[in-house]
Amino acid sequence: MKPDVFQSPDYYQIDDLLNEEHKLVREATRDWVKKAVSPIIEDHAQAATFPKEILPGLAEIGAFGPYIPENYGGAGLDYISYGLIMQEIERGDSGIRSTASVQSSLVMFPIWKYGSEAQREKYLPKLASGALMGCFGLTEPNHGSNPGGMTTNFSDQGDHYLLNGAKLWISNSPFADIAVVWAKDENKRIHGLIVERGMEGFSTPETHNKWSLRASATGELIFDNVKVPKENLLPGRSGLGAPLSCLDSARYGIAWGAIGVAMDCYDTALRYAKEREQFGKPIGATQLQQKKLAEMITEITKAQLLAWRLGTLKNEDKATSAQISMAKRNNVAMAADIAREARQILGGMGITGDYSVMRHMMNLESVITYEGTHDIHLLITGLDITGLNAFK
Length: 392
Ligand code: TGC
Ligand code: FAD
Known about the structure:
By secondary structure, this protein is of the alpha+beta class. The protein is built from ten helices and nine strands.
């Protein structure tokens, strides 16, 4: 891969909306991505291996639990800083952002919000430092968009619970030390359970042959009569709303992360269009390529403003789930469109690993599907504005 010469666009002086801490956090993350992610990511994506060597660095920059309070090992930052960290990491690769999203929003968040004090103290500091890695099991082979239909279940055996079932498409599962698993009790009520690697009957086979998120480890979670200690149940909240509230936090991060990918594709395409000559002039001097580039920067700017406003609402604890859905859906689709256009601007070079664009383009096929598909988020907006539920 070519050296990382990324320069971030800021067409509307959005930096003026950020405070000094936001800018410091962003610069530190950007520097780390240039140093630790860009030089190795293409080889890992080509080989379909997860770069475990970057885990300590992710912890050091505060990517594991950016908004978790410092007394639990988190960075204690606000939601704009969290978003900017996700933006910069995903600028490097969506799969690396996935690992950070899962650890922060899908593992640390439920333990912080719904765990007992003993669970918080036992797990959060180790998750923040990367000493423990986690995964989140909601999706099942027959229940993806409709997690409420899940069949994974547990029964009360007196001194422990007995867990049975299977989860599919689980980021980080092949190497995770713990899994936050959502399962139904005997009354069909959904609860979160912390399942630890090594528990008898618990296995995590890896999913192979992905053309997308190749540098992220994806797998299954299989529970065959797993004895889970009673103290591993998250006591603070039950029902489908519990896992869905974790998704809100992760979807928020993705809305920012997608901007990072779009910026990288735009920056690469702009530089290429100014350097590459055909018919005796740079291709960037042609109206067709200028149209593509002008539309890209327009869409990036709109997405930045959407994410920034959503971040200010989150900081004030006023962001709704439906607002988060709109931002996730819009910004990921925006990035996917820009990646496809950028790949075309690069011509044949665009299909090679010399540039990040095709890797981003393929990664976004997962990002547009996970954490609620493009269609599901549209229907969430539809429900919010009409009051009429298309899911029932
Ligand atoms: P519904 O009846 O609407 O709601 C059930 C209960 O949940 C509440 N609720 C929410 N609470 C918090 N946050 C949200 N976003 C919520 N949405 C709904 C709701 O108020 C209700 O509460 P209560 O107290 O009345 O019981 O549920 P439904 O079964 O009709 O489904 C609604 C739907 C389709 C929107 C939901 O199921 C959905 O979002 N489906 C998409 C599934 C999804 O996003 N899966 C993601 C799996 S994890 C993942 O992809 C990780 S990728 C990781 C990475 O690598 O980054
Ligand atoms: P389905 O739900 O079967 O949907 C198939 C198609 O039907 C989609 O286009 C969908 O939009 C459409 N559709 C579904 N319902 C409706 C409807 N009511 N109206 C109109 N159209 C509809 N899950 C986890 O729990 N943890 C993870 O860590 C995790 N990581 C993932 C990593 C990767 C790489 C991928 C690809 C997925 C991951 N997922 C994870 C699962 C992800 O959340 C699901 O793939 C996603 O929610 C969609 O579910 P599905 O694949 O079963 O598709």
